[in-house]
Structure formats: structure tokens, C-alpha cells
Give the backbone structure.
Amino acid sequence: MKTFSKYGFWTFVLLISGLAVLPSMLHPGDQADQTSLRFPEIPLPSFPDKKFKVVDYGAIGDGKTMNTAAIAKAISACTKAGGGTVVIPAGIWLTGPIQLASNLNLHVEKGALVIFSPNRKDYPLIETWYEGRPEYRCMSPIFGENLENLAITGAGVFDGSGEAWRPVKKFKLTAMQWKELLASGGVVDEKNGMWWPSEAAMNGAEYLENLKKTNPQPQREDYEKARDFLRPVLLQLSRCKKVLLDGPTFQNSPAWNLHPLMSENLTIRNVTVRNPWYSQNGDGLDLESCRNVAVYNCNFDVGDDAICLKSGRDEAGRRRGMPTENVQIYDCIVYHGHGGFVVGSEMSGGVRNIEVRDCTFIGTDTGLRFKSTRGRGGIVENIYIKRIFMKDIPAAAITFNLYYSGQAPIVEPGQATGLDAEQAVPVSVETPQFKNIFISDVTARGAEQAVELLGLPEMPLQNIELKNVSISAQKGLVGMNASHVKLTNVEILSQSGPVLAFHNGTNVTIEQTLYPDKAATVLALTGSKTAGINLSKMNFSEIKNKVSLAPEVNPQVVNWGKER
């Protein structure tokens, strides 16, 4: 990692000279930061100057010879020699799973294409974690567990042959693509809506459900019938330390692409992660219960969430009790994904101390995405996001949704009675909490919804700040069950509906907010719990005619502060 930031050297010079840092030397928005997170230094792995070329151990890069044993021999020789670099040169290298080792740099040279076998029987079933719970799954094509001092480098490509594993939904393909897919083999479910690579894959979920009902302690062999259904992630690094991913392209995964799990001191830089946009569960990077991580200069173009932070699901995640923490993400581009930067929904072990900056999202379904639901538990806190640029976002540019996979109440003027009838449930270890999240210097052009803040009645979103944000969208900002929300210099250029709508919002501060001149309603308030709505540095004579209060909202809850 760089020792100094862009202006760090000159800042240092000025400080030791007794001079203040000039504002012009700061990135836009730096002065607005509530605090500066301090991250521990992340050590990079280092290796002896020894090289082991896979061709010297019998590997043949012709795209038809299986090289599983030859690559394993090269890695074994490297390990016996005390570590070094295993080199995969230019060529097409067909192989089964590659099991990594400590003190190993797996280097794929430019022109190297590593294609993992489409034969699902080449991947043994192992005990691991998937989607936040302990599961039997097929071994990942690239797999490492309990390793230290590890790297995967170079300009080559790893291809996971995901087409041999993934189901495909009909509505995501053109008529010609669907026809070609059917001609390739596989089976289609009774509703003719999902293609599967085999009948065993199609029936896998039902088989496993029945297995767990009838057998409280199923063994590995009991899962063999569902092997085709138990898709692996392309790369899994479990309980590893001091890891570097630098340079390669990881693509076409059976499920998630990159999955560091319960690992620490990770550097992920200069990598490209690709999956077809229609790929089921085709996440880019899932950091799960990891600590001390830097992700930068990476490109993502995937079929699900792009850069995602997780920490286990429900009771299993809480029992593990390992938050994802001390993570820096910067200078990344996401071209497609369900979310550009995402927290959840499997965050039961907590997520904290995160910085995301200087990233661009182009055509992602949502931009900044926070999701959870009742039953998860866990605390998400101390998240700092700045200098994010978005374009063509089909859903919300910024979204907090604590009703993920559930039925969120609809916040619309005139529906306050129904919303107030929503029942809070008792707070427990199963209640998710999202608090202390600061978002600044965000520009988004072309979204369906500008901002969505959906908390729970028993646990509102807490201490959410948006500053120096400009979003053009069809709809504005909607907030429900959110407390201590602060909007400063926020521009919402919405096409319809209220620019800002809060239901049961408390202690909401709105300063210098900009809105379209044609907007009929700038602020709509509903819900009997709404209180402490503070407005300042705005044109009150104009905005007073554009504030809508539902009958249950006392007009005195609106505090008119200092006018612009």
C-alpha cells in the first residue's frame, strides 16, 4: 500500500514546517469528514527467489490435456523447497481444482488461460461455508485453507466454466439465446422458467430439504446425489493470512467469484472480475468475516452484487462472532451488478470500520446497497463513503433496506394509517442494527429512486448522514423508521412525487437541500411518531408552500431554523 496519499507528502512537509494544510490541497469533501478511520498496516507476502514452471512437471497448455496432477506437483515442489513462485506460462491450461499452499505465489503470465474442468465430478465435496452458513459444497476451483503468505499474481485469466454449473432464468435471455441453451442439453423445470445443467441439479434443493428433515446429521456421502446443485465459488480462501491478489482476471464462476472467508491481512488490487450479467449468484467479491483488507484498482462486471461485505447468516453468523472490519475500498469501477458496494444481507457477525472512496458504478441495479432483515442480528457501524460516481442506476442510487426478502411497507402520502399499524417486534439478538454511516460527495445521474432509508419500527436506522450529494432520479428520497438523519447540501433532482418523504422519522436535519423548481412537494411527513424535523439554510418563503403534513403529524414537529 502507498505510504502517502495523493497529497500526503506535501501535507507532511507543511506540518513539519508549522504550516496549516491549504484547503485547495484536499480532495473535495475531505474537510467534511466526521472523523478519519485509522487502519492497521497490511503486510504484503514475500517469497524466496525460486521459480517452478508447471511445464517442468508435465503440464501441457493445449486446452485438452488435464493438468491437475502436474500443477499439484509444481506446488508440492515449491512447498518442499521452502516456498517460491509457481509459473503458469501462456497457453490454455485445462485443470481440476488447484489447492494452494503457504509461501506460494501462483503466477499466471500474460496469455495464460486457466480453464477449470466442466466435469463436476472433478470437485470433491468438502465442509465449508456458503451464504453465511456451514454447508457441504463442491471444492472451489481455486482453494486454500489455513494458509499464510500467499499470492496469486500475473496478467493471466482464470475461467471457472460456470456454464457447466449455473441455472439460467429464461426471462434473462433473448429467444435465440434460450433456444441455443436448450440445444446444449440440460433440463428445464416444469414451469419452463429455469434451465438446469442436469436433473440432479434441478432437484438438488428439494433433495437437500428432505434429507435434512429425515436425517438430523447427514454425512458427506448423503450429499453426493445433490453434487450438481452444490455449486462452488471460483476462489475460496478460508482462514488465511497475509494474502495478495494482484493482476489476474477471474471470470465465469459457478457461483460467487472471490470469497475470502475468516481471513486477515488481505490486499486485492489490479484484478478484473467478470461473470455473465444473468449468472445466478454471480457475485464479484464477497469479504466474509475478514479483517484488515485493502481493495483497490479493480474492475467488476458481474451478475449479482459486485463488492460485498458479509459476516455470516442468522444464528450461525452470530455464533461465529467474527465481524468484517478495517476494510478500505477505493479506485474501483463496477460496470454491472445488483449493487456496486453492498453490505449484507448476511451480516450477523457485524460489519465495522469501513472506508469506500473514489469508485464509479455504471449501470449497477443499485449503487450503495445496505440490506438485512429480522432474524439476522448483527451491527453495521462506522462506515465512511465518499467520492462515488454513478450513472444509469435502474433502482435506487443509495438504499438501506431492513426488509430484505420480506414485504417492506410502502411509504406513500395518504397511507399513514396502514403504516402506523405496522407492529414492532421485541428487540433481541436477532434484530439488525445499522448506525453511524456517513456518505459524502456522491454524484448519480439517471436512477429510478434517489435514496431509500427503510428501517424497522423497533430498530430505526441511526445516525445516517448524506453530505454534498447530487442525484437525478425519477423519484426522490424516501425514509421510514430512521432517526438522527442529516442531509447537508443534498440535491435531489426528482421527476415525480415528493422530493423528500419521511414516515416516522425523528431528529431529521435538512440543510441547504436543493430541489427542482417544478416540484409540488419538497417535504412530505407522515406517521404519528414523526418528530424533530429541523430545516435550515433554505428559502422558507418558498418551501413552506411545498411541505405536506399528514393529519397525524403535529405541525410543531417542524423546526424552522436559520433561513438561507
Summary: Residues 1-34, 413-418 have pLDDT under 50 and may be disordered.
